[in-house]
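Our working data are protein records whose layout never changes between entries. Getting from the letters to the tokens is the skill we practise here. To make this concrete, we reproduce a full record directly below:
***
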Amino acid sequence: MHASPRSPAAFAASAALALATAGEAGGCGGPREDPVAGRRPPAATDRGAAATAPATPPPPPFHPLDAARLDALAALDEPGFTVVHRDRTATSLVVALTSTETPVRALVTIGPCLQCRAMDVAAWQAALPELRALMPGALEDDPDSRFELDAVEVAGRTCVATWELGAVAYGDDIEASHAARIYCNDGAVELTVRVDDDDTRRAASVDDARRGAVRAVVEDPARRLAARFAAAM
């Protein structure tokens, strides 16, 4: 899913500067006393040992979402998943999938970036209340609900990932969610992947929902699907 890769995900690593200094004073090779101040001058820098690591170039932007690109993305599949629905418009694509290996379902959304935050955790942390509000029903306001955000590498670019777990009881009914999301954008095009754990949603009690949730069950397929589609964008 690369034009020429994300950033959504896009960032350059800062260069590291290695400095070698001369040895301590003493012996004929040590620095001499400063006759004026009575102090030893600073050791000379070995310029030959200094090296600057090359900066990592940012990933190239995604390809424009023209008809050919959307057709190619719509044709993608992923081992271990079955496509149950595709919704393609002139500018976007939504793909719903279910896992053949674990009780999870996924939703992949590709389209123009409507609210393009930089692929930087600090920028997304500022929007944490808005992102947490995507949790269903009363889970957003339940103090026992967990919602975490971090950076993740996807197909050579930095993206933002969230993980959520919550469960509340309404009499005999349970509302629960265990899900992972990945967001990637390059400032113009955005990829969002959501994976939900249906076992958590079908749990018999709040305790069962929380105890039975395993992060890798939702996070691993979310990363796999994000990498699959991002690499073709």
